[in-house]
Amino acid sequence: MPIENWDDKEIIDTDNGSEPAGDLDLKKNEELPIQEKRKRFFQSLNNKFMAMAMAGFLTLGSGWQESFADQIKLTRKDRGTITFSMEEGIKENSLKDFEKKLEEDEPKFMKWLEQYLKGVVVGIDGLTEQMLEPNEKEIQKAEKRLEKSINYSLRMDSAAGQSPEQVLETMTKFSKIRQDNKKVLDYAKKNPESIRNANRFLKEHIKDIILGNIFIDNSKAVRDQMMTSIQSPDISFGAYDVNQIYGIAAYSGISEQVGNNGEIKDSRNYLVITPSSFIFTSGEVDLTAYKNAFVHELGHTIRPRPHNELTPLWRALNEGRVQNIAFEILQYLSKNNSGAEPFIGFQIYYDNLVITASILESVAKSSSYEDLMANWHAGLIDDQELLVKLEIASKEVGVGSTTKYIKNFATSFEEKEYTEIVEASALLASQLLYSIGAGNIKPSAEIMKKILISGRKIGDQQKEIIEKQEGNWRRHTLSVLKNESEEN
Ligand SMILES: [Zn+2]
């Protein structure tokens, strides 16, 4: 079994990929059966944003002996062998240069960005206020709502034939959620300056956070889409938010006000941070965890998304990509700021998916389809086009096929249980490492580990979790090598 200590700690954000959650206040108990259905899905996505898995960083100098916390860059000289070199996701001056260029070439976009940033700053101020001067009446109401939902969910579990032991386990988990909420609210009361500092940090670096997302996407088409479809989100603090029982710690989406004739009267982007965002593995309040959660979630809200129904492939890769980018940004900020730190080990499933996201990104960026992943992520091209172009990109760059593996992963993604997803994501990461190794470089547990911790400011607790994962990675990388050698 992989990681025992994660199952009981369900802190994730929604994939902003499920249908928009809409206004939470409108969610009544009658709607819970649908939520029950989604529960499994959300549980399978456990802790995702906390799992500040990294990657986006890998270096494969001569062979893969070293990994320096940098983004993979694949180059092929004169049709010769592929070389892998270090390329920082976000380099020291990249954001400044990028900003300058945008100011020259896309003044309209920069105007939009300015407005967007203003809105986010207002949102963060509101968040501070809601945390430090909570409306006690509202909080009591929310606590009651949470209690009701918990009781309902437990009844459903019983009715669905769960054993008393399983129900008891769920009860324990739920009561921990309530305790955690109380803990975070108490913490805010007793440490208002710490909360203020954390939010001040986010405000001070908000431009870099957003520019980092736009820089990595590096797509004019996506930026154009942003101007027409994205507005700064309404940001709120969800004390006792019901979604936490489905393993969600932060979430975002679009709420639409629909008129009598079904017309959309108003639509707003929103982002909700719940107290679960503040709790790390130790069970203690951790502001680094919160900052990571915020940057990750904002990464969802800044991005346009497909209009049509979200495909399994999109769902499967969305989180990894957002997380990969959030990690790059935090890594960048951690270099010059004491208030930032990359986060890993919270959720190996996430760590694995970030590795896969960074590999796909690197393949695309190294080919003539530089903004392929960004455009697909924003719904500007569909799955089919993505797969075809990725295949071409892999050929161009001279690595093995990546698409057969991601197709396999996506197909079964939504049916899988959480533990199976952990396994499947480790397998996918191993397979993609194999693909880009193009037969010359072999995936190994050691590489996976290095991708995650090498050159980073990583806490001991997090390192420990990563180390526990090594056996699992070894099993997967060996199975990939075995299967592939049989096939060839
Ligand atoms: Zn997310």
Task: Record the SSE blueprint.
Layout lengths: L3 H4 L4 E2 L18 H13 L26 E6 L5 E6 L6 H12 L1 H26 L3 H24 L4 H27 L1 H13 L1 H12 L2 H10 L4 E4 L10 E11 L5 E10 L13 H16 L9 H25 L11 H18 L6 H6 L5 H15 L5 H11 L4 H20 L7 H9 L6 H28 L1
Parallel strand pairs: 1-5, 4-6
Antiparallel strand pairs: 2-3, 5-6
Helix pairs in contact: 3-4, 3-8, 4-7, 5-6, 7-10, 8-11, 10-11, 11-12, 11-15, 12-16, 15-16, 16-18, 17-18
Bound molecules: zinc ion (ZN).
Largest sheet: 4 strands, mixed
Present as ligands are:
zinc ion
pLDDT averaged residue by residue: 77
Uncertain segments of ≥5 residues (pLDDT<50)?
A: 1-88
Number of domains: 1
* Spatial order of the strands forming the largest sheet: 1-5-6-4
Helix percent reads 55-70%
Category by helix and strand content = alpha/beta
Order of helices and strands: HEHEEHHHHHHHEEEHHHHHHHHH
First-to-last CA distance: 30 Å
Strand runs, count: 6
Outline: globular
Strand percentage lies at 5-15%
Roughly how many Å is the radius of gyration? 22 Å
Number of helices: 18
